[in-house]
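User: Design a sequence. Structure:
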């Protein structure tokens, strides 16, 4: 995924203003390399997996890879379910060790994860979560398993559906258990920090992404058509 990286040394030289340059980030959310001025950089983003996959999907649309966009949107939904399950388990006082042990039994099969998410959410909130419609599930399966080449409208429809599933879920989690959302995010950042080791200079940054669990969306969130417009994708 390409994101904007800011170099702390350049920012300091510019009087504290972040200086961004576009870089390809590693799959684990880390970036190592040099800024255009040659400073060594180790930058971690706190972007969650589902947020990164959603970003990859948007970039795929920009680059004209529609099948890849749909499969990345679909993967983003699945990883959001995983995040939500972790938050809801945490909310019940279940330790991450026990959660991880339970996750092992569903890890290999996304249908099991969907089932776990659906019922955990329903039991927690007394309502059925927003999920992909049958039409969208069929589109995803046709793309994934039958080699369907989707047109632009299908990709945008699927992206909009994925966006709604995740954003309505995030809004609910933030409203009902913000402390657990923050704790899950904190744990994610800690895991990344561990991978960074003691290498310096290092920096954490919040990357501007279409989805971001730290955003307060209690009073609403941008429409998907406005999100894609920001990426230069004609709606
Ligand atoms: Zn620099």
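Assistant: Done.
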């Amino acid at each position: 995924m390409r994101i904007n990286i800011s170099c702390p040394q350049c920012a300091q030289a510019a009087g504290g203003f972040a200086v961004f340059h576009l870089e390809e980030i590693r799959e684990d959310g880390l970036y190592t390399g040099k800024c255009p001025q040659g400073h060594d950089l180790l930058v971690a983003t706190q972007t969650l997996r589902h947020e990164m996959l959603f970003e990859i999907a948007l970039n795929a649309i920009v680059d004209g890879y529609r099948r890849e966009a749909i499969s990345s949107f679909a993967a983003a939904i699945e990883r959001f379910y995983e995040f939500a399950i972790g938050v809801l388990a945490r909310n019940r006082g279940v330790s991450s060790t026990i959660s991880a042990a339970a996750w092992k039994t569903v890890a290999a099969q996304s249908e099991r994860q969907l089932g776990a998410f659906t019922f955990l959410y329903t039991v927690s909130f007394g309502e059925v979560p927003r999920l992909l419609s049958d039409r969208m599930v069929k589109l995803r399966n046709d793309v994934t398993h039958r080699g369907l080449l989707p047109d632009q409208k299908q990709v945008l429809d699927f992206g909009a559906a994925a966006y709604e599933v995740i954003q309505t879920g995030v809004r609910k989690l933030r409203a009902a258990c913000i402390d657990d959302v923050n704790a899950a995010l904190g744990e994610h950042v800690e895991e990344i920090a561990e991978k960074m080791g003691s290498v310096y200079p290092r920096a954490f940054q919040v990357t501007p992404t279409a989805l971001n669990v730290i955003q307060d969306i209690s009073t609403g969130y941008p429409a998907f058509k406005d999100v894609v417009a920001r990426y230069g994708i004609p709606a």
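The first helix runs from residue 8 to 13. DSSP finds eight helices and five strands in the chain.
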